[in-house]
Amino acid sequence: MTEISTQAKPEVTGAFLVAALYHFARFDRFEDFQKPLQAFCNVNGIKGTLLIAREGINGTVAGSDDAISGLLTYLRQQPEFEKLEHKESWASKMPFVRMKVKLKKEIVTMGVEDIDPNRIVGTYVQPKDWNALISDPETIVIDTRNDYETAIGIFKGAVDPQTKTFREFPDWVKNNTGLHNKPKIAMYCTGGIRCEKATAFMKEQGFDEVYHLKGGILKYLEEVPAEESLWEGACFVFDERVSVEHGLKEGNHKLCHACRNPITAEEVTSPHFEEGVSCSHCYDSRTEEDRDRYRQRQLQIALAKQRGQKHIGG
């Protein structure tokens, strides 16, 4: 099923269509598909990252309207991905440096064997119905993302596990017996993929009423009006836009290229912020040798920019 974005294209020359996509399916020939997929993207000027594994495909890419439309058609021509869904947004400039098609053991890494969303998964909840579910006092709402993501935005009243990686999530669940205190568990993530595995895991752990937001935060921000929203803040995205807000408009966050944490306009004014070198999140955890190394990298980025090029390390 194709999801068509209602978001208006930015009124700037060269705006890029961004497609976030994933699909769980038995994909035994994933290794053979890497080179053809990489070649297709290269020829059509598409950039981003696609992960392929025996369990399916996941990633975000950007390019011209025609290029992204062609890629989606190409993917859906593969029998395994015939029902692949995607979400669209726009970027005023190319949000990726290169195109990478990576072979993986998992398309989203939880590190728990035999978790198969094709076999068992939570109940999907449409964005229009999400507010009612998470406002129910009988519901525990869980954000399955990592701490650097939740730091800039979260649903009102949600539990933040404060995980550094998704691999930590299963242990967090096992160590929180209070999750059994209410009958309903509602889970969400950026685009929906982590919740496919998270809800499958929760069902395997004996939780009965497990729900997750279909299309994730991105679909909610696209469809639910800001005046009706229970979302607070911005949504971290894994590209050079850094964050998006209601209507999937580009947010105002920057990325610290030393620690990869999103930073606000206020944090940019911190004495610990130095472009490409440090920010208030990482200053105390880096040595002066680290910062000197980052300064050299930042210098190379600046020199490449002067030449009209884009430094790969940037």
UniProtKB/TrEMBL annotation:
Keywords: Oxidoreductase, Transferase, tRNA processing
Residue ranges occupied by any Rhodanese domain in the UniProt entry: 135-229
GO biological process: tRNA modification
Any matching Pfam family: Rhodanese
CDD domains: RHOD_YceA (cd01518)
The reaction(s) this protein catalyses: uridine(34) in tRNA + AH2 + O2 = 5-hydroxyuridine(34) in tRNA + A + H2O
Keyword Cell membrane attached: no
EC number: 1.14.-.-
GO molecular function: oxidoreductase activity, acting on paired donors, with incorporation or reduction of molecular oxygen; transferase activity
EC primary class: oxidoreductase
UniProt-listed InterPro entries: Rhodanese-like_dom, Rhodanese-like_dom_sf, TrhO, TRHO_N
Keyword rRNA-binding included in the entry's annotation: no
Family to which this protein belongs: Belongs to the TrhO family.
Record HAMAP family: TrhO (MF_00469)
Function, in words: Catalyzes oxygen-dependent 5-hydroxyuridine (ho5U) modification at position 34 in tRNAs.
Entry protein name: tRNA uridine(34) hydroxylase
